[in-house]
From TrEMBL:
Species for this entry: Lederbergia lenta (Bacillus lentus)
Protein name per UniProt: tRNA (guanine-N(7)-)-methyltransferase
Family from the record: Belongs to the class I-like SAM-binding methyltransferase superfamily. TrmB family.
Gene this chain is encoded by: trmB
Residue numbers binding S-adenosyl-L-methionine: E44, E69, N96, D118
Pathway: tRNA modification; N(7)-methylguanine-tRNA biosynthesis
Length: 213
């Protein structure tokens, strides 16, 4: 996602530490102290403007959600949603998904969502794909045993690549749809990108995979 540079974004992010966690390391191994409940934590890596994570938090008050987003100029849009929604069970972290191990201990997270991740179609950029082997290893290191990744995209090439990457890693494929919006899957919450691409007639691909540890 490319957005106009917003020089004020950093200052705005810093002025809402109740929503964008400034020092996530302090919650390493003890995220329950932040949310002050015993509910599981689900994270979305590459959360963009935050529609999915906010609507999921509204729909599932018994789950704590954390959106991980690299770009300051994008995460401020997600921050605006959180300010409006005033939900106790959703937070944001402005960081690179490859650094999750710094903030989450093994078993801190129960599920990882990847929605419309950047496809990085050139082979030389393969390592940047959020479903590249090194990212799957990072997710394993923060997830509970038997934790899950839920992935959706409109990009057929990225979807096929990801299915192969998950399978090569030894993950169990528990759900797959090649046309989510014409499937029987209920309760789907659309992301900003999903709305845009499905309006153009693109089919939406979705899968769920599970670690076998
Ligand atoms: N998930 C949103 C949606 O479906 O509308 C946004 C999709 S957008 C194509 C991908 C987002 O992932 C961008 O905002 C980008 O900055 C973010 N992103 C890409 N690589 C990332 C990484 N390594 N760590 C965190 N965020 C990342």
């Amino acid at each position: 996602m490319r957005l106009r540079h917003k020089p004020w974004a950093k200052e705005k992010i810093e002025s809402y530490p109740q929503y964008v966690i400034g020092n996530p390391k302090q919650y390493y191994g003890k995220w329950c102290t932040l949310f002050d409940n015993g509910f599981p934590v689900h994270i979305e890596v590459g959360t963009g403007k935050g529609r999915f994570i906010t609507e999921m938090a509204k729909a599932n008050p018994e789950i704590n959600y954390i959106g991980i987003e690299l770009q300051e100029s994008v995460i401020v849009a997600a921050l605006d949603r959180l300010i409006d929604a005033e939900l106790p069970n959703v937070k944001l972290i402005n960081t690179n998904g490859e650094d999750l191990r710094k903030f989450f201990a093994k078993s801190d997270v129960e599920r990882v969502y990847l929605n419309f991740s950047d496809p990085w179609p050139k082979k030389r950029h393969e390592k940047r794909r959020l479903t590249f082997e090194s990212f799957i290893q990072v997710y394993e290191d923060v997830l509970v045993n038997g934790g899950e990744i839920h992935f959706k995209t409109d990009n057929r090439g990225l979807f096929e690549y990801s299915l192969m990457s998950f399978s090569k890693y030894g993950l169990l494929l528990t759900y797959v749809s090649l046309d989510l919006h014409n499937s029987e899957c209920e309760g789907n919450i659309m992301t900003e990108y999903e709305e845009k691409f499905s309006a153009k007639g693109h089919p939406i691909y979705r899968c769920e995979v599970k670690y076998q540890n």
